[in-house]
Amino acid sequence: MKLNKVGEGNTAELYAVSNERIRKVFKTHVPIEMIMKEYLIGKSIEAIDVKTPKIYTLFCSDSERYIEMEFIQGTDFLHDFTVTSSESFIAQLAELQLTVHRQTVKSVPSLYEVIQDKLGMLPADMKQQGEDLFSQVISHPSSSSHLLHGDFHPQNILKTSTNDLVVIDWNDATSGPPIADVARTLLLMRTAGDDLLTDETRVRICRLYYTIYTSKSIIRLSELENWIRLCALLRTQEQLSLKEIDCLLKLVNKEDLLRFFFESKEK
Q: Which fold, 4-70?
């Protein structure tokens, strides 16, 4: 039976099996260990107090490897964003991330172990700086048993016809301190994507997001700065344009980094 292709990413193609099920067919370069990890994480988070796609089947053969999961019919949450409605939009986003961070899932990897693995893969000229930043962020005692999404942003949230928000793409989920997840989200809000949003709007979004999140959970600005630097350094190893990588490297060494996120308009 020929399936209808509904999407494609760097690692997989998506096919509709039915109105309720979707098949994620992995490309040949994706290691089986990565596929197994994604399947196990997906299964482990099904019971949390956040809506996520149900995971049904893992299939692996010499010719094909896929995961079948619940087909969430919806649009990515970014479609709800307008400058005039930004406060309501950001409030929903922050509340949802807070709910994620209130969960505990023992079977996901430790964030600290994942970071150490990533540091080992950095180019030699970045590795020492990465290790120094890592030493600084772990020097502050904080709870490391919270569920972290690892790539929390509006395009990894689907809004259904019944207005439910479903969090997808849990491949990078770990257990660790929420401040690390917040740092990654702020970094994406401030720097990722196209140039449709002005610097002024991005700063306002970051400031509003931080204000709403920290009204219900304690995150210290003094600790946040180095987490953002570390997230920026590690993100340079993702599949990004040279322009984006250059921007991230400048942020790693930027003085008054938090002003870039919360106070000033870059020129």
A: Phosphorylase Kinase; domain 1 (3.30.200)
Domain boundaries, the chain: 4-70, 75-262
What's the whole-model pTM score?
0.91
- Cα atoms in the Cβ-side hemisphere of radius 13 Å centred on 93: 30
**pLDDT, mean of each 10-residue run, the chain (267 residues):** 85 93 94 93 93 96 94 90 86 96 92 95 94 91 84 94 94 94 97 84 93 91 94 94 93 94 69
User: In whole angstroms, what is the distance from residue 243 CA to residue 267 CA?
Assistant: 16
What pLDDT, on a 0 to 100 scale, did the predictor assign at position 266?
47
Backbone angles phi, psi at 259, to 5 degrees: -65, -35
Rounded-to-integer distance, Cα 137 and Cα 116, Å: 13
CA 61, chain centre distance (Å): 30
CB contact burial 218-253 (16+ within 10 A = b; e otherwise): ebeeebbbbbbbbbbbbbbeeeeeeebeebbeebbe
Rounded Cα gap, residues 67 and 246, in angstroms: 35
CATH 3.40.50.300 fits 75-262, yes or no: no
DSSP labels, 146-195:
EEE-SS-SGGGEEEETT--EEE---TT-EEE-HHHHHHHHHHHHHHSS-S
Pairing of strands 74-76, 65-70: unpaired
